[in-house]
Amino acid sequence: MQFKLENPQHQISAIQSVVEVFRGMERNTYDNAHLEDIHTNVCSLSNQQIRENIRRVMLENGVLDSQSFAIDENDACIEMETGTGKTLAYIQTAYELFREYGLSKFIVLVPSVPIRQGVIDTIQNFKGQLADRYDIIPNAFIYDSSKLNLLHDFITSDHLQIMVLTMASFNSDNNILNQVERERLFNNLPYLEALAQTHPVIFMDEPQEGMDTLNSV
Q: Within a 10 A sphere around the Cβ of 47, how many other Cβ atoms?
């Protein structure tokens, strides 16, 4: 069965609102966003510029200052009702941020294996149509400790990367993310620290389902 890519106005508005938060940012390139083995997301805007962009987006969407819950932290809560296409909306947001600003590192953090699989299924179902629209095919994958080449590519590549994983991946101090890189890459940092240095954009799907903020990233 072929799924048809459609974007109702509420999805378009949500995607463009996120894109506008970074308006005025210098585009990421290999020269300004690559440090030794690690390719990172670099935001050239100051916190004040980001807050001004957020306030402009709020006003354009009819949100009054008295209705906002603006905070001086680099996270945002974007709420969409169940069944309104939030998974496809944040996936397309990654495409748009890559196309517009060169931001290449995205993590989708989910509370359960079924939701994790649903995200990957959505990416696969619409991959061809998204490629036609954006001329981009991302490296989208589920984190698997037995496939460290994918994690290595996520950290080093300047191509669009979307890694989907559950909070359980971080719960054990003995897991591979906390082990020092075996080939002495990334300045001998543990994978988790190297991953943090990419400054990924993190989409937390269903954060009310018992997920804590990933402060280390």
A: 11
